[in-house]
Structures are given as C-alpha cells and as structure tokens.
Write a structure and sequence with these properties.
The complex is a heterotrimer of chains A (372), B (168) and C (556). Chain A has 10 helices and 16 strands. Chain A has 372 residues and is an alpha+beta fold. Among the domains of chain A are: 74 residues, Roll (Ubiquitin-like (UB roll)), CATH 3.10.20.740; 56 residues, Single Sheet (N-terminal domain of TfIIb); 83 residues, no CATH class. In chain A, strand 7 and strand 8 form a beta hairpin. The longest helix of chain A has 19 residues. Chain B has 168 residues and is of the alpha+beta class. Chain B folds into 2 domains: 76 residues, no CATH class; 76 residues, 3-Layer(aba) Sandwich (Glutaredoxin). Chain B is built from 7 helices and 5 strands. Chain B has a 5-stranded mixed beta sheet, with helices on one face. In chain B, a hairpin with a 5-residue loop joins strand 2 and strand 3. The longest helix of chain B is centred in the middle third of the chain and has 19 residues. Chain B is elongated and about 60 Å long. The two termini of chain B are 16 Å apart. Chain C has a 5-stranded mixed beta sheet. In chain C, helix 10 packs across helix 11. The termini of chain C are far apart. The relative contact order of chain C is 0.10. Classes of the chains: A alpha+beta (372), B alpha+beta (168), C alpha/beta (556). Chains in contact: A-B, A-C, B-C. At the A-C interface, helix 2 of A face helix 16, helix 17 and helix 18 of C.
Amino acid sequence: MVNITINGNAIQVPSGTTVLRAAEQAGITIPTLCDHPDLHPFGGCRLCVVEVQGARLPMASCTLPVNEGMVVTTESPALTKSRRTILELLMSNYYDSGYKDGQKETTQFMRWVKHYGISVKKAQAPAPRYPVNSDPNPVIWVDMNKCILCTRCVRACAEIQGRFVWSQGGRGFNTRIVAGAETTMLEARCETCGACVAFCPTGALDNRLSMGAGKPSTVVTTTCAYCGVGCQIDLNVKDNHIIRVTSNPDASVNGMAMCVKGRYGYDYVHHPERLSKPQVRRYLLKGEPKPKASAGANPGENSDPLWDWVETDWDTALRITAEKIAQARDQHGADSVGVLTSAKCTNEVNYLMNKFTRQVVGTNNIDHCARL
Amino acid sequence: MDVTKNRIEDRNIPEIVKAAIEKHGNGRDALIPVLSEINAALGYIPAQAIAEVRRQVHDPSRQVYVNESQLYSMVSFYQMLSTKPRGRHVVKFCESAPCHVVGGRQVWQALEDELKLKNGETSADGKWSLVTTSCLGICSVGPVILIDEDVYGNVTPKEVSEILAKYD
Amino acid sequence: MKTVRSLILVSEDEASNRLGARTLFQNLQDALQEFDLQEEVMLSTITDIGRSDALPLVIVYPEAVVYGPVRPEDAHYLIEEHLYKGRVAEDLLAPIRQLSGRIAWLRARKGTLPAEKRVVLRRAGRIDPESIDDYIINDGYLALGKALTKMTPAEVIAEIDKSGLQGRGGAGFPVGRKWSFVAGASGSPKYVVCNADESEPGTFKDRLIMEGDPFALVEAITLAGYAVGANTGYIYIRGEYALAYQRLENAIEQATAYGMLGENIFDSGFSFHIHMHAGAGAYVCGEETALLESLEGKRGEPRSRPPYPVTHGLWGKPTLVNNVETLANTLAIICNGAQWYRSLGTLSSPGTKVYTIMGQVNAPGVIEVPMGITLREVISIYARGMKPGSTFKLAQTGGSSGSIIPASLQDTPMDFESFRKAGVSLGSGALLICDETTCIVDLAKVLLQFFRFESCGKCTPCRVGTQRAYEILKRITEGQATLDDLDEFPRLAGQMEQTSNCGLGQSAAVPLRDILKYFRAEVEAHIRLGVCPAGVCPMTVERESAQTKTPVLAPA
C-alpha cells in the first residue's frame, strides 16, 4: 500500500493506482473528460491536472501513478483557471447545430462547461467544421462538430468490443475521429453495438433511434431479455414507452458493454403484435379433437374457428402443455418428445430444461436455438 | 487523376505488400518501413493496400495484432505517407522558418502561381502535386524545394518556372 | 572553416557607416590583397558595439587591439603596420576611456582566435565515410576497444558522469546520470535507442555526423550498450535522410564483418546488434517517448510520464535514448578522459557544441566550438558578419523549440546554464540570424504554423492552443487584430506551458511570450498603426490558402 495525501486527507491505496482513482476512493471529484474507469488512461484532455508538491508543472491525475508520500492538491485558483481555459479551447472547436439530440441527460462535457461558468453561445466555434449526421449507420448518429477528441470511442471499440472501427485520422489540429480507412462505420466492420455512443461524453456519437426523444421520466434497470448472459440494462421510459436503452455502469455482468440487440433491439416491446398473454388454440381449450384442415387451404391455415388462438391464463396454458407432453410420452414413448430451448433463456433456465427433458420426460432429444 | 487510378488498378498490390514485408519484416515494429516501401512503390497507400497489409501482418499466433483503422491512423499521421493519389511529380516546399526568412514566401507564391495549385492539391492531369513540408535539414541553402528526389537550393522566384520545365 | 592567423573586425552600425565604415572595409580588403595576406587574415564586421566616440572601430585578434576612429584612408597603413610588419599602430589606438563596456568585454577575449574545436565533427569530411579501414586508421574503435578490454561498464558510466556531458538534443540532461539510471533499472532486455530524428528546423548537425562519420555513431551506440547492459540498439533516423541511412546501414554491415558488432566483440564476451529504423515524417517523433511509440509501429504520440523511458521504454523495457551528437561526444571522452573534456567549454557546460548558422549572414554553415561563446562572436567571427546592408535584429536559437533572442542578449554566453538563467533555450544548436527585413509577427506566425501542423493532436492545449495562437497571429498580419488579442498570448502560452503532455506544446508557447517580451512595440505597430514596420505583412486579408481549409468527413 502507498500513503498519499490529497487535499489534506491521508489516503492509503494499492501501488499502481492513479491519483485520479485514489481521489475517487477518498470521495474527491476531479473533473475529467477523456478518462473512463473502464478504459485505459489516455491523458489527452488535460482537464484533470492537479498540483503535486515538488513538481514543476501541474500533472494529469488520470495517468499519474501514486508515489509514497505524494502530496496532491486538486483544487486551487490556478487549477480552476487552467480547467476553464481547457474547456474554452475545447468549446472553440465545438459546434452545436441546434437539433434535438438523443441524450439521456446533459452530456458530461456540457456539465463541466456549465460548472465552470462558460457560455456555450459565446464560446462555441463560429461555424461547423464537418457535416452533421455524417455516417449512414442505421442506429448511430455521428456529428463530429461535437467531438473533443477524447478517444473514448476509439478505446471502447478496441478495448471492450475488440472491433477497432474507430481511430484517429490525421494529426495536429486536423486530427479527427475516423472509421476504418475514413469510410463508413459499417464498412469498417462496425457491429452497431453502440459502445462508442455509451462512452462518448459530448454527444458527437448519439443514438439515432432516440433523437429528439427527450429525457426519461423513469429509468428501469432490468435484465436484457435477449440471451442467457443476463446483461443489466437501463430502460429509459417516458410516457410508458421505452425511448432508449442505456448502459448501467454498475452492471455486474456486462458493465458498460451491450450488444446491438440489447441496446437497439427494443422496438419489439411496443409492437402491436407482441404477445403479452399466453394463447392456445380454441380446440385445446375446449378439449375437442384437432380440426381437420379445410380443403385447398395452405398448410397451417384453417378456417375452422376451433383453430383460432385464444388468450388464456398461465395455469391453463401450462396445464395443457403438461398434459400433451405426458400424453405423447405415454402413447408414443419418451423419444417422441423433443425439446428446443432458447438462447434467450438464462443458463439456469436452460439447465432446468435439460433436467426436465432427460429426467422427467426421459429423452435425450434436447437442443438449443444457438447451435449453428 | 484517371491516369493514376488506372495505374493503381493495374498494380499487383498483394505482391508489392509481400515484397515490402519480405524486406522489412512482419513484426509490428516493421510497419512504418513497410508502409513507406508501399508508398514509394504506389505513390500513395490506397485502402486496398491497407487491407492487404492487415491480411499479411495480422497474426495472433505471433502476437502481432493490426487492423485497418490503426493502419489508416498511422498512414494519415506521418507526413511522408499519403492516403490520396499524388501526381507523377511531387513538389515539396520547405515552409520552416530558416527558408521563410531568406525569401521562401515569394518562392511559394511563385510555385502556387506557376502550378496553379494550392497546398495539398494535385493537378487535373495527374502531373503535379504541391505540398509544403517541414524542415528538410538543408537549411544552409534555403529556400529549398524538393521535386521527387531532387533538391533545389537557394531558389529564387524567377527560377521556379525554369526548374519546373525540367520535368515532364 | 579555414584556420587563419588573424581576424579583423570592422564596426558596422548606423554611426560607423556614416563615418565611412563601408569604404574602410573595402580599403582594408584591398590592402590585404596588396600584401597578399587574404589567405591568412580574415576580415569581418561587428555590429551593435554600443556608444563610442571613436567610430568606426577596427578590432584585431588574437591581440584584441582596438583601433579607432579609423578613417578609410588609414586602411593601408593599418594593414602594413599591424598585419604585415607585426607591430601595433600606436597612433590609431582607441582611447580606452571612450570604449563602451561591450568593447572592453571583447578586449578581454585577448588571445582567442576564430578556431573551431572539432570533437564530434573531427573526422567528418576528412575520412571516407564508407570505409571502416579509413575510420580505424583515424582513431576509430579506440574508445570501444579501451572500454571493452580495460574498463567495467560502471567505470565507463563514471567517466561519462565526470565529464559533465549534457544531452545535446536540446534539454541538456546530464548524460552520465541517464546512463546510470538505465544501468540500474530492473528489467531486461535493455535497449539503446539513438535519436536521429533530427527535425528541428534549421538543424542538420546530426545529419553531418551521420553522413560524415557514420562509424563513430555505430561505435558510440555499442559503447553505450556496453555501459548500460543492453545488447540491442536502434537508430531511429528521420525518413528524409536517405544518404545518412545508407551510410549507417553500410557502417553496420562493415562493422559486423569486422567483428566490431555482433557476438563477442573484442573477445570481451559482450555482444551487440544495431537495427536501423527510418521514420516517415513527423517532427514530434524527436520527442523520446513519441519516438518509442513510432518505433513500436504506432502513431507518434508522446506517452505520459512518469514512468520514464529509463525504466519503461521500448516494449516497456529500460531504454536509453540519446541524441546523435550526445553519443558522438562519448567516444572522445572515453579516449581522452573526462579531465580533457572538462578543459573545453565552460565549468557548468563542458565540451563543444555544433551549431548550424543560417539567415542573413555572409557565411551560413556549420561550426563546432567550445560551449560558452557568444552569439556576437558567432555572427562576427564564424559567420563573417551580417550580409552587406543588414543589421542584426534577432536570432532564433535551437530551431522552432528554442527562443527568440533580441540583439540586446547577444553577449550571453551560449551554454546551458547561462541560457537557462537568461530564460532562453539553447535547443538543438540551430542559429537563425535575422535582420531588419524579418517581421517578428510574421516569424512567429511561421513558427506557430509549424507547431499546429506538427502537433500530434493528442492533448488539448497543444492541439487547439497552437491553432488559436496561429489564427491571432494571422489576424495581426492582416490588420484584423485588436489589442485585446494580445492578452490571449500570455493566456494561451501559460496553458500550453503548464498542461501540455510533452515538450512540443510547451515549446510552442515560447514564441508567444518572446514576441511580447522583446518586440511588443513592433507587434503593437501592426495593430495600432496598421503598418508592418518590416514591410513584410500584407496587412490586408490574404486570399484563403488551402491550409486553412477544414477537413470534411465523408457525407452521409
């Protein structure tokens, strides 16, 4: 363990910890933009500079490892001035074209800009440098006029997703974030997972499906329904509608990561044809024999009203299912029954299905939809 | 421009990349020499060449990981590598202070006027590209211009057209 | 530069010229020819010599005799008496009391002659750079032989440490200390990387060493490897230096064939290999951590420090990064001893320094002289004075990352300590000498144009700060600026100095400070009066140049 002092507080942290993380542990907030706890430190924005006793110049706390006996000050008039200037420099290259964005809340960048009392109108660039909405990606909105080159998108894509879609192109003032060899995101092997959007602190990358949707009235943390991984996700709900899905940084399984389905595949929730109650064929509910198909009808089509789907309760639906499985096993043997379980189920559910099939039904006929 | 385009399509990019890798190695540390070699062979580094370098260098079994976005990022970072086609002759003008104070500004003006190009542009017939460069290390004879591999020192605005006339 | 027995300096300033200094100079030249002395005696001018009632002055070295006032018609007599017959022309001596402090100071340099002291350039131009035999005949491999057979690595480092050698790349870090850090660092393997990415505008000293004496660099890297415990060396050379690359490659090949590189060198059990690595055009790669990134095949973005390369360098291993000139110095130190090295230069900055001289002087070129000579001496003696009709206005030292030095500071001894005290940077040894035709705003604009183009773009203060500063300077040259704009310079400069990730952003702040510190009146004239005193700036909006065009991403 290493002993350091931050703003007069004596703190003990493991060696190798950065000053920024040590300050966090002590409940001290240092303004940051390019830093993210899930990503490798970058040290580019220089907002997080702190004063270190004995050092000639302020140092970036996000990349500075702690040293025994280090004495750090995170707030001073000089640091405030420095941070304000950094934000003004970033603002001088930022342009908000005025469209309604898809953000859940005020962006991290704008929060710091406001915190340091900078007027967006006065400080922002006189004109945009790049076309707004510059990438045809179906779910990700790109407006590089809001980019501050923190490279969180680059690192999220490389370090978390392993896709390497984004990188920095050019150098100096002409540095810009580019996809692949300056092509579109999809051509650069983008899987549209939206990790870059989740990590972007400015709204340069945004959720296209949520543009103009506004702020949520409630945020519901839930488990993604798509697969057995069990990612924790935050549903942003407004007027009883999901307006976007955001990462829950505290999610123990997936952290900030999500796949395209979890982040963008939520429209099925509000689909008019979505099943919200169990349904069974009328003949099953009435306990009648299966109606014969009418002449000339396509397979699966039957005009007989007994063939219709009818809403029912879970107990009834399960009872009928159990009876039918038992009937098939008893009449035709256990191997006449087969079970196909789903990738949307959790591991636990799949384990139970396995046990049910082999021990209760007594067959090895079980498979899974994710087998390819 | 079409002239250059046709030329690129005629070239066997996989072979050129292979030759560059054979000469400089297939490790991550060989990437800049390899890319420089390809740039010299093709005049620039087209997207196909970037894809080809990734194909031939990326090899998890040797723990060499490269991908196209990183390669493009490198190519666009280094001044001697180009992501865009360049003319048959590239005129590089040193715009650093030592050349500037001994008359460089006027020479640049003459180059722009003579070639009817601005910095970074390539002429429509694919003959000329005009770029500025940082110091070339031949400052005692400034102003300096470099055309392809030929160095011209102590250049005066009057000499510019004469020098350009040597190239076809 | 040729060796001469005497040097004559003629004062050249407004007052002297009015009193016939130009004609005097011409007459002195004629007289030297008449006595057939033009090969042995050098004639040059000296400017800004302060107030004196004895103008024009003529100073003759090595005796440091000051004559004045000398009329044009005295020229023949003066040459005949002093240079031909060898006695002081008493009747023309300047009355001591009438001499300014500066001239009195010049007189204190009695006994010195314009002689170069070549240490690192001693073989350049005198041997065949492609022949190892020629190199060995000219004392090549003496240092490595001595080190490998008679000295332990610790003794080598101790000798370098005692010599007081400081890094010649610009920062002046003590070399012995750096070597001992790497030698003492845990972790293996260790590497030696020679920083030959010489991109500082106006600097080509390393090129001359590499082209003229490539074997010396190969030997020095091997020596450094032995001292710090490395078996692999890299030469990171800038991509533009094709000839230097070829010569070094050839030198490595021949040295390997002779057993001076490779396994078990001199039967000492020490093995060493050197790899060449060419850059691809990025100034920032001269910064040591950016260089290491580039060597690893990445964008040349400087790393965050700490940790430093001495413990976490190439591939995360302890790495010694030294400049070409620095390494070249070590050979002479091992051969001749630290004591000898300390006899050169000044107490705090021993040794010699290679300077490249450019600008409005009669003899631009390269010199190697002991540390501690002054800018005035460089201009008057080594550069043979300002060009006819030019008056020294300012010098830009050390390339873009150096300082702008006004004429008033030209008597500051050029060594690391004196320069540090004066708040200027010695940098890489480039000396750009400018006259009154150089506009300070225009010069600063060119420098900032360089920085904004060469910035890696990683950190905010450098990437955006250089651009904003450039825009303001451009506005000043176009007559579009206000006095409020000038307040932005200290603010931007402070931000860049304090919070940039590497030296590039910190250096970019220097011109912003210097122009207001030394040339505020000239800058304000642009704004208040709408005129460029040097007549350089257009003072109207220039046509849009392609460089300011913004990049546009592929539209949707």
